[in-house]
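Late entry, adenine complex.
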Amino acid sequence: MKIDVFTLFPQWFEWFHSQRHVTNALALGHELEFLDLRGSTPLGAGQVDDTPYGGGAGMVIRVDVVEAALRARYGPQAVEPSVGHRVVALGAGGRRFDDELATELAGEERLTLLCGRYEGFDERVHEHLATDVVSIGPYVLSGGEAAAMVVCDAVLRKLPGALGHADSALEESFSPALGGAPEYPHYTRPPEWHGHRVPDVLLSGDHGRVREWRLARSRERLRPTRPEIG
Ligand code: ADE
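Prediction complete; structure with ligand written out below:
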């Protein structure tokens, strides 16, 4: 998989790039690149944004700046009529990011993420350059960078081999293996801490009972938030 992240702050991703599951994914041949929207702007002095028509606070990232960035990366024909793969603009008003969407995106060979700043993108970026607008939650961030890291993190850990332990992603919160429920609780040593004991069943060595107990705890955690599944 090749992921390109367009941002005004590519250096913010240096830390993210060095995380274990990211380096694992890169070692497997996947690619992750961070591209500076200012690097290809057709405007003078590195300008990328402008004041909103109709007035109001803040600045809006220009559609011609995003177009130039996509053309510089994918070729002069890239945006006519589309880049040819999923182009996700991060924005608070978009489709809610969840495990299902992470799995969907992990199945793509190529993925582009567009990080907005300030008041976000000119609406024509959403309408004509992006294939999706995605939000990581019902709150407003100062920009799409943190959201892009969330999306990359959730998508990359789904790629086979990205996690140290192959089973880690199979039976985790919201996975089909748990029927979309949150994951069951985990315990490790010591078996007793200030009088709080690890549930006996986990120390029993009986794999069947352990599995039953885990599924039951997972479903219990579901009820308060999604009673329709529980
Ligand atoms: N940009 C600003 N807020 C955002 C959010 N909640 N999700 C994705 N991108 C955003």
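The pocket of adenine is lined by residues 90-92, 116, 135-137, 139-141, 144, 147 (CB under 6 Å). Will revisit in the morning.
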